Amino acid sequence: MKTAVISGGGSGLGRELAKVYSNEGYHILLLGRTKEKLQSVKEEIAVDGSTASCITLDIACPEDVQKISKEINDKHDVQLLINNAGVGIFGPFLDMPFEEMDKMLSVNFSGTVYLTKALLPAMVEKDSGSILNIISTAGLRGKKHESYYAASKFALRGFAESLQKEFEETGIQIINAYMGGMNTPFWDESEHVQDPSRLRSPREVAEIIYEESKISAEIIIESK
């Protein structure tokens, strides 16, 4: 059975993408740092009549990613990798410690690179598969009080667009999605967005991404 691997699959957009793709014949393999959240999504997918499994993993740790990748490739036919995991910390540039920059770069950029490099070789061997990179409109333009966050997303955009060029003549599809803010727990510990309820729901964004990915390798979903 074809498998879709989703990083950051325990909540928000990752959770909704898992549910959307589970309805399209994929076994869903959820990756994330919190076992309870992953298990909850797995059970929701099972209730809907589809199958899922989960692995607790911090994608920012290259050794752990490499170790888990062997288990994934041995047990699953990975046809889709959704690089969704990400963190956002916001504030005036002069008030932001370097530790916050390191955290965002390690997850938003490096973690995506580690996971892609671990799972892409199996796709290359089959000359088939898709990688969907969830990036953010912060990867298209800088925004106030998002200097470190935007930098991490610009780095991810450069990586993802380069992959598009590198694999454009192969059977592997690289799709990059840039979406604005959503009404998710992403904002629970931040005052950067005063009223998240005015934003699109993660389900709405997941459905747009799914439909647009059928016809385009670049998806832009601006905030409402």
TrEMBL record:
It comes from the Bacteria. It holds the Pfam family adh_short. SUPFAM superfamilies: NAD(P)-binding Rossmann-fold domains. GO terms for molecular function: oxidoreductase activity. Signal peptide: none annotated. GO terms for cellular component: membrane. InterPro entries: NAD(P)-bd_dom_sf (IPR036291), Sc_DH/Rdtase_CS (IPR020904), SDR_fam (IPR002347). Keywords: Oxidoreductase. Belongs to the short-chain dehydrogenases/reductases (SDR) family. This is SDR family oxidoreductase. It comes from Bacillus salacetis. The lineage of its organism: Bacteria, Bacillati, Bacillota, Bacilli, Bacillales.
